[in-house]
Amino acid sequence: MTVTKLNTIFEGIFKATPEKSFFAPGRINLIGEHTDYNGGHVFPCAITYGTYAVAKKREDQLIRLYSANFPDKGIIEFTLDQLDYNKDHNWANYPKGMIRYIIETGYQIPSGFECAIEGNIPNGAGLSSSASIELLTGVLVAGLFGLDIPRLDLIKIGKQVENQFIGVNSGIMDQFAIGMGKKDAGILLDCQTLKYEYAPIQLENHKIIIMNTNKRRELADSKYNERRGECEEALSQLQQKLPIEALGQLSEADFDENQYLITNEIVRKRAKHAVYENTRTIRALEELKAGNLDAFGQLINQSHISLRDDYEVTGIELDSLVEAAWKQPGVLGARMTGAGFGGCAIAIVENDQVESFIANVGAAYAEKIGYEADFYAASIGDGAKEL
User: Fold this and answer.
1) CATH superfamily of 206-378
2) Mean pLDDT of 282-303
3) I need a surface site. Which of 42, 171, 222, 356 has the fewest CB within 10 A?
4) Is the domain defined by 3-201 classed in CATH 1.10.10.10?
């Protein structure tokens, strides 16, 4: 995917030459799963797959958007005073929501524009293509009209679009990782306070392999709400004795000492995952700072085991991929990533083992599950930017 190709598409569709080009990545979460709504830490990074855009200002108030990923939708048009959600506008509701809230925040967008976009984020892989489009729109509008919008504001506006405009109850991790991503670094983010710290991840000799189960995540939403409820129940029982506001505030020792307060065994396991996963995520930062990639890989493996046994959000597809990955030579670690019940897993694999890894894990998965998984080799890249 090149900007040159997108320029050609733009010229063909809009009969004009674009002025500027932009990119926003997708993201993966390396460790720290189901910790965000428990007041814990996450550890995402931006990846080298993402969404590209080229754009040109117009003289009038009309905005015209075209996506090469959805050519059948054609050009989607609306004006600067028509910024309500419209089901028929499909993918373009993400840019529209961003434009609306940027204006509502007090920034001036004096005219409309034309824009062509194309992304190479695999569809349905859970790498956050929606947040990629949101941050892409943010940097595009800022770059096109010379607006000085602080990056954290764009990130918060992206979350607002997701929650209020689209109506998805998601946290801030996706927009944060995509907005603040940095080449060769993960981000340890406290989802409560938005305090963050970069961690060096030197993977010159390794690739991050994204493994897509190709199972549709029908269960993810209902089970997600169920797990949130179980964690809230555990928290309220612990609060009878402990002055805490979130499970993420507990150390492993605090939890072990007070877990008797949680009367239901299943609820206790859910809380244990939230507490232990948060500790693993903080330890991941320390190991990476010390250059201990092997120890980091072990933490990733432990994360999957906890998600499988204590949180019970993996399922046979994700377990089959990860357990096959653990058996391959040159694998630092592997785990599910995202909400679970389908979607993706990740593995960190030595460069010279990547081909055999994909062949072996792919064969094991197809034999057990009956259909193919997809594999993508990614590197850790920069956040959203003008090119």
Assistant:
1) GHMP kinase, C-terminal domain (3.30.70.890)
2) 94
3) 222
4) no
